[in-house]
Amino acid sequence: MVNVALDESPGVLAYETSLAKQQTKVKFTPNEIDEETLMENIKKRTGYTNLFVQN
To answer: Quick check: pTM over 0.90?
Structure first.
């Protein structure tokens, strides 16, 4: 479900999801989408609420 949300988000260039680690690394274009919008897209699509950004 996270991958679908990322596929539907503008500005996402690439991502790598690890189900074992329960994490996704995302490469995106900041002038097309910001971190907050990206997180909201994932929350809406998946219902996940325990999301965080690690730089």
So the answer is: no
